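Predict the holo structure. Ligand: magnesium ion.
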Amino acid sequence: MLAPVRPFACVLSLLLAGAAGTVRAEWHSDTQPIMGTEVSVTLWHDRAQAAERAIAAVMAEARRLDNTLSPYKEDSDLSRINAGAAAAPVDISLEMQALIDKSLYYSRLSQGAFDISFASVGRRYDYRQGRQPSAGQRRQLLPAIDYRQLRLDRKHHKLSFGHADMRIDLGGIAKGYAVDRAVEKLRQLGISHASVSAGGDSRVIGDKRGRPWMIGIKNPRARDQVALLLPLVDAAISTSGDYERYFIDPQSGERVHHILNPRTGRSASGVTSVSVIGPRGFDTDPLSTTVFVMGVEQGLQLLNRLEQFDGVIIDAAGKVHYSRGLMPPE
Ligand code: ADP
Ligand code: MG
């Protein structure tokens, strides 16, 4: 911890620095479209050039991860796995292994609510075009959603699929991992106040110079409104919502969105938004998706069991539910 700086001393040193024409501490920020969403960085730095280099490093890392993990890029490592792993074990990087291993951990913890093989059915959805698999297609592909049939050879760094129709997608964990990587880079560069986000996954370094970072949770049914603000210092927060990618089924009037219940191959219902707070995006991202699928009751039970995590769930009626750590003491 740095000793607190008195405001007067702080202003004086900034003025002196300004007079010398060399340094002027201020906030720097940038937002770029990467990973199918917006990646944003805000950081405090006393040299504009170094700040720009730091921001560029974060964006470059997000682009690298997009190129590695995207299911939409044919030459990504993920696409290579999906193309080959049903036929024979495919070599994977240590990074890929860590992502899959973490995903399997959350699959086991939730008895399959989180399952990266949701993509076996999930790839038949196109939210932009308003397309979804027919009931017959869903029935046929559903057995291929099964994390227990993901065979990870941790020793030889290989992955194979136990079902011919199996596919994986890391969309429920990749952005949380990306914000962690960004934070690592910024820390290495000596930055002690910053906020990084990739869509609904954010992580902050330190505070916002004297006060906590305030991270907003959108109103799921009026996205330009903030439903809640949560103060954060040195923490990650991930939000999963049914409003990010969806369409309304013209026949049933149901909302078809991008978080699937692996048991049914259909959009998870009952909840409209889940935010999870914890130390790292690598955990809060998969956990927010997991809790979304589990629903209010089971989701809160899970969060209350996990020491390091807390969460806020907004249900289908708009009611807000808090995990134990966020509730006022009795
Ligand atoms: P966002 O992508 O909007 O940040 P989430 O973190 O909740 O939201 O992730 C949703 C993404 O997770 C989906 O777009 C999909 O790629 C993936 N996903 C959907 N359902 C599941 C599931 N049951 N288990 C694991 N991943 C899922
Ligand atoms: Mg998530």
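The CA atoms of residues 41 and 62 lie 11 Å apart. The two ends are 32 Å apart (CA to CA).
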